[in-house]
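Two proteins were folded this term; both appear here.
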Amino acid sequence: MTRSAALPALLLTACLLGTGPAAADALPGAVQWLIDRSGDPDRIGRDIGPYPLDGSGIVALDPLTGFATKPAPAPEARFYAVLARKDGYAYAAADALVTADGMPARGESLGVVGVDTGLAAIVTRSGLEAMSLYYDSLQAQASDPYTALEPQLPLETFASFVTLPDGTRMAVSSSGYGDGGYQFFRLGDAQGQTVAFYLDFLGDRKGEWIDPPPCANL
């Protein structure tokens, strides 16, 4: 599937960074770590809201094509977006599902998400199965996911929840500058407890990917 010509460039003026939940609220350790590692003092974290999980694991994917990473186990979580500014525009620099408030001390890649629509999502494994059934039904009706989901897609809000007719929720965000391949990472604290999963779209201010410790940029 190629990126729809109807999708906007997702480049919004920097003043929009001040809308929505307060950027100054205390952030969980993993989100603050992503901001600190970026070396960009203008980045902010935005709490999008709770994302209840069902024990089936989570995957990351392009929400309009459905090609997903392998599943990873996760408890309850909250969805956060990290926003950045460049040349007078605002972008989604990263998104994360935060599962605990500890600081990251280690991590691993869970696979690469191929983005072909300027959007990326995190969803439960059971939700992915529901997505597949729903998308098959759309195809049978000569429709497509973009047409069906467009009113909910974060085309002007950077990140939001998208809900399918059966109640399945996806945590969806714009993917930085657009299409490409983005790694899905798990972060753990010093005791090995998972604290977050994240997708890095922009890297740091030098353009280097923000990898988990001990591979993180210094």
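Next, the second protein.
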Amino acid sequence: MANSLKKTVSGHDSDKVLYYYRLPLHWAPMAKWQPLGLNGATSTTNTRTLGTTQTKVANIKGVGSINQQRVVNVILTDPQQDTTDVARDLYKTWEDGDWIEIARVDWNTVRGTKGSRVVNFEYSRCYIANLPETESLGANTTENVTFEVNGVARRYDDNGNPFTLSESDFESGQFDLVSKFYNVGGVGKTGTSNGTFVDNSSDDSATGDATGTKPFDGSQLTPSGSTTPSSTGGK
């Protein structure tokens, strides 16, 4: 007999969450997002200040301002072979006190047809307060960098729909390259990058992609034929 139960929970591959960067103070305005690294050794944080007012009966709590960090395990590139010199870019950003654009891209969410695919991402402007360097023998030089988000990182619009990047926002072949990151690809089939900046006129609207998540109002949880309870109807 067929199992009539629907699968409601599935895992999210953390290895497919990758970080990209741009240097808007130095690069061309339409420069593509460039690879930065993977998830850092310590957790990315999203915190808010918490205020507590003590009364005789109970504590009254309220949340205040937002503080966020994005921790990235950065693998430094070879400037003689690669499109970017990540070590130089990060050091100059840290030394000059400049801000850097960070894109947290969730490659679990790729959808669409080749040539017009999109992927969910989070955008933030960050500063670098500390720039450690790990130089282990027999390994690549890496930096586990904590990027301090200036303001708030934007991941969803007001309706809870995720913001997206398209194939044109990356170097040619990036979507195919990432899809083969943990798979087998033939010679010459993992994408190419010539390091040039191509005009990338983008949509500046503040609306996310509703197809990338569930409705924020929970309407998909309402059984067929019933009505959605009013959000103002009390307890």
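The chain has two helices and eight strands. The longest strand covers residues 59-75. These notes refer to the second protein only.
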